[in-house]
Amino acid sequence: MDEPVQIDISVFIANALAMKPELHKDIDRLYKKSKYRYYRLAKESRWYNHPLLANNSLLRDEYAKKVLGLISCDRTDIIPLIKKGWKKVFNTVSRSAAVDIDVLLETLVKDDIDRLTDDEICYTIVMAIVTARLLGKEIISNEAYNQFCQTLYDRLRHAEGWKKLSLNTLEPGHRVKVETLKADIYRVKDMKANFYAIAKHRDSNNGDLVKLNEAIAFLFDIENLNTSIVEEVPVNERDVSEILAAYFASHFNLNKNEAAKFLVSGLYIKNLLKAYRQVKEQYFANNRETMFVELEGLEQQNAELRQRLSALEAENQRLMQENGELRKQAKTAYQQAVAEYQGQVRKLTAEVAELREELQADKTELTALRELFFLLENPETPDHTEDTPDLDRIREVQGLIVGGHDRWQQKMRSLLPEWKFIGTDNVNFPVNLLDKAEVVFVFAGYLSHALYFRIINEVRRRKLRLEFIRNVNEELALREIAGKLKLNHLQKI
Questions:
Q1: Which segments of the protein form a coiled coil according to its record (predicted)?
Q2: Is the pLDDT reported for residue 372 higher than 50?
Q3: Full domain range(s) for residue 334
Q4: Domain boundary residue among 259, 286, 313?
């Protein structure tokens, strides 16, 4: 019997738990306990950007990375996740004295073999192996176990490029046939490496291609999406060759008509895949976890500053008590001087006055410090004695407000119905909201990281005027807006 292949199955565990939507809230709960630590551990793992993990859907990729951080710290943390998401697997393994892959396949997979995907079958066995190791169960090393280990190893190799279809792996003769097929399609169908020339074909002699394109466009309509998603993705000769290589590898013929149809459909699919990958890259480049390292440093700095503030407050309290004692001593000395030495009254009075002046100076300084702390901890409140901005003139401006709490936005909408608003969670807002905007106001105090970067990028691209507001009180916010727009002192709100 061949020895089993030795591999680290961390990436398979991460994928297996991430593929269960019912576990996502539990994963989040565990992850939040030490999110900075888990994030660092995941980033340091060699699996963090491995294709087997990163080539999944965005949501599965995100949760797999979180699980990777959890299991890099303590794998026993995932036992509750296995019990919930893989209940049948956990119960079967926990009742077994030893784990036999042949028996597991018969017990867990055979009855559902027709409805299970390859991933589900693979990860069922992975979870069984992990559960056995966590519970201290023996795993029988037999031919089935060795074959499964080899399967996992082959999956890793395939994700890294082994036996994957590409132009580089085609046999030279097949590559020539693909290029010949492409040239024939270009000539007969009057096409070239351009999305509009292929997918938007309007030649009446190629009615089947026109109908195919229209049918695909209908699918975009059904999903309320625009075909610009794929139209904006650049297309080159290699893209066309790769699509036709996929056709040739599956059909193994040079039928120009069928290949042309496949090329139209393939171009839509390939460009959708490219667009989706771009979205994933943008998401992971700008999501909140990319700021975890910086945020952890800021939190540590904040804790140190709070500790220093507590020490200063304690010192201030000590000085106040000491000052109180000095006042008592001064009063006692004054009374003794009056009783014993009438001649020293003026001298002692002058000393007391000097002490009182020093005390008053301390009080004045302390009051100023208290006022400063109060202003830092409390926002401004409306001053109804001041003139208010001209609401009508503000409404004439084509304005857009981004961010702020929902209730605050609702109040501002009632005051500025002509203005447009983008909510804090509306990261995927339609960019046409900025088409007629003259000025964009950003409420930086309540705004997501992703939305901030997207709106800033759009403002820069359109060269729009950008301003920031900070007041949660709608009247102060209007004054702040009016101040930015220089529209004041004309009308009551």
A1: 288-372
A2: no
A3: 300-377
A4: 286
